[in-house]
Amino acid sequence: MRWLRSLSVLLGALLAPASAHAEEWSFTTLEWPPFSGSLPQGGSMTSVLRAAFGAQGHTIRITVLPWKRAVAAAMQVDGPHVGFFTASAAECAAAEGILSEKPIGHFRYALAQRQELPIRWTVPSDLSGLSIGVVDGYDNGPIINDLHQKGLVTLDVAPTDIANLRKLRAGRTDAAVVEISQFAYMRPGVDQAEIESGMSALTLNQRPLGPPQPLHVCFNSSQKAKLAHTSLIHGLGQIDSESLVHRYMEQLKLEGAFSN
Length: 260
Prior knowledge:
This protein is an alpha/beta fold.
């Protein structure tokens, strides 16, 4: 009967819950409200990650850095991190990372504009000739990328989202690419700055720059990153990430500004 006891021990080890071998996975991210950064619970996407890994008894550690530094630090296979978020497929490919099969959320871009000079467009070519503000290192989506590649628009690069909006407010660009939920979150602060500076008020163009796009985690190629990747896949299958995001946005009073 000894072999039965041995078999029982082996099966017990194989079927033990993940919490028996709890891990702490380290990620980098950026200040990108309401998705990530210095926010309650670290932002909506951080909340999703924490729930997905927490469903298996794991925890996460988040380091917030400027975008390019966040990507570079996350991709060091001998470093402490296993990956970065939030990433589009193009951003992960540019970093030569490994994209999570399942998204952790969605984003949707639109154009911020000065209130007195709204952008009227129906087809992308209507944007020809504009100077459009973007953030260094971001994937700006197929519409803006295609227009730029064709030489139909000029891109003015800013280091951060808030710097991008400040350039627009000061009249240095005609429009600025901004995430819809992010603009709703930043709008009160932007409005206050307008009042204090006397600069142009900003509004969001009502026509989005395409449909919602998935947000992913981008992993490096280390062995621990592969384990974290597998864990994330299992964890996302155990939670309702969309409901988590909606509840988070409601807590921030951003109803109606969801990027999904």
